[in-house]
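Bug #77: duplicate submission created two jobs. Keeping one. Sequence:
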Amino acid sequence: MSTARSRVPEFPDGLEWFNVNAPVKLAGQRGRLVLVCFCTFSSVQCRHVLSDMNYLASKYRKDLTVIGVHSTRLPAEMRRTHVMKMLNKHHVRYPLIHDPDLKLTKRFAVQDWPSQVLVDRDGYIIGALTGDGKRARLEEVIEYQLKRQSEHQAADSEEYNVSREPEPQTLLSFPGRILVSGDRIYIADSAHNQILVTSRQGNILRRYGSTSPGFIDGESMSAAFNNPQGMALRDQFLYVADEGNHAIRRINVRSDEVTTIAGTGKPGTAFGASATRPEEMRLNSPADVALENGTLYIAMAGMHQIWGLSLITNTIKVFSGCGRAGLQDGPPNKAEFAQPTGITVYGRHLYTVDAISSAIRCIDLEYGSVTTLAGTGLYECGDQDGAEADARLQFPTAIEADMEHRMLWVSDTYNNKIKRVGVKTRHVSTVIMDRKLDEPCGLAFHGGTLYIANTNAHEILCLSPDSGRVEPLNVAEDHTHV
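Kept job's structure:
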């Protein structure tokens, strides 16, 4: 951490604040340490830091003020409603400033996200750290600073009260993904840290995971997940991308047992690593999974790669992607992805969506080589139908193969739309429907119906693509089912 000594710039008037009733002035926090965290919610690395900030704000609540700054990188992030939803989805409990024009970001000379700036009790910048995984280092510096004498005391600081705008009380909470097989629907009820199994009518038949985040194997609700996302089903096993735990979990839907088959619970950075014991390999924010010929393919969002876990040999390795964030086609060791969050199999290819390049990518299953169907570069986005180079999306998060119609369905999340892509024509078009969406993050096509996890509205929708008619799935408790 840098030792340069300079006075922290004051927050200007007119900023939009969240989680507090009135702005927090840095001058009013003299006598306390201040930690200013710059992040953008579209970055998975930034989302890793949010729980660290909650932890530090709680542990040092008598001596430390944590303030978040949301720096926008995509047009949808400028919306006030988007910021509010992200705060609630990720349980942010400290004051946050919305910085859509990046004025405050530039005032602090921040160039990388996430960045964490620590200010001493006298209002001088101690230094800054960039990237995630810095909680231990921050604690060391905070502990050291608290032991030092200061002419100010915490009692000199102005008080502020955290005041959050709660989400409505609903049975689902930010459902992230959905899977439909036979007469069962599997819902990743992500903010509740659970996997739900329902009938086709929506009656809840099973719950897996406690509502509290955790990393615990066990039976049914004695197990624990942390922000579960994409799922794949084969025989009696449901495979789950447990994004917040950086792990792949397996649910035996017959015995109700939840086990960890890959990941340690800690994020990793070994871009080219492989292991004969997947449970000892550190993963990084697996967002989705897809099964093909005994291999579980993993959209490893935090490493900007696609991995493969062999269920036959119980080995795991990188399948495609060099680990650099970008939009580069080519062989698997040269190709670049940018936070792949959705993955599906169609014929001899994997298709994935890259969230922060708003791209659709195609990966050859035999060689791992990559080509781009839509997208132009990091944080380049839009909302335009067309063929390949003409098409534009904004932060797509899910992709679903539809063999029946020879197309792919894509959740164009930040455009609040669903797009369809012809596999042969590679033409991207918007799906017309009679209902507005709110950042949909999950899709499943089954029996002529497209099931949509309308994430920010806390609901599952059933779309008839031919008519555009949408009906909500009536998710409800079923106390009669055994």
